Amino acid sequence: MKKYLYILLLCGLWSATLSGQIRLGVKGGLTTTDLQVAALSVPDGSGNPLLNLDVEEARFGIQGGLLLQIPVGRKWIIQPEVLFNSNRVDFEVEDFRGGSAVEVIKSEKYQYLDIPLLLHYRLGPLRASAGPVGHVYIDSSSELTDFENYEQRFDDFTFGYQLGGGLDIWNLMLDVRYEGNFTNFGNHITFN
After folding, report:
1. Are 82 and 115 in contact (CB under 8 A)?
2. Rounded CA Rg of the chain
3. Which end of the chain has fewer beta carbons closer than 10 Å to its terminal beta carbon, N or C?
4. Is the pLDDT at 115 greater than 90, yes or no?
């Protein structure tokens, strides 16, 4: 018990000494996805195509949350964030179940809690940043559930990375980031 009290006391002292330097902020923005995935063909029991599924368009999503900037020296900043992220992907589906091909557009919406931990290098008002990001799956909704034997299986937690740059203008931070993931989009889709 004493060990935990010492840890809390040290954390409290450390945060008190840095409180004048630490910045807490609110973040909001738009996200978009460039998906390079192959079409999925779902055969029936005899090997004939039942459905063809392809990404039609990845729509813009929104994100919002909190960030903390902790200076480390004069040029470096550690920035943990907690962000709610919501986006949508439209799929073009060719349905062969009625004997002839019928094309429809079906949508899936995803909600994640993103937790990036970025290291920034500051050059005056400019910043370069990089770091890992964790994605905690919250919820999804899909119009693909209209098809028999469709199942979604999302991993509860996945990892990726972010690279980017930013510009600080007074108390406003403008950032542009690229994110890569260590899991492939579409791994959650299962038929039969």
Report:
1. yes
2. 22
3. N
4. yes
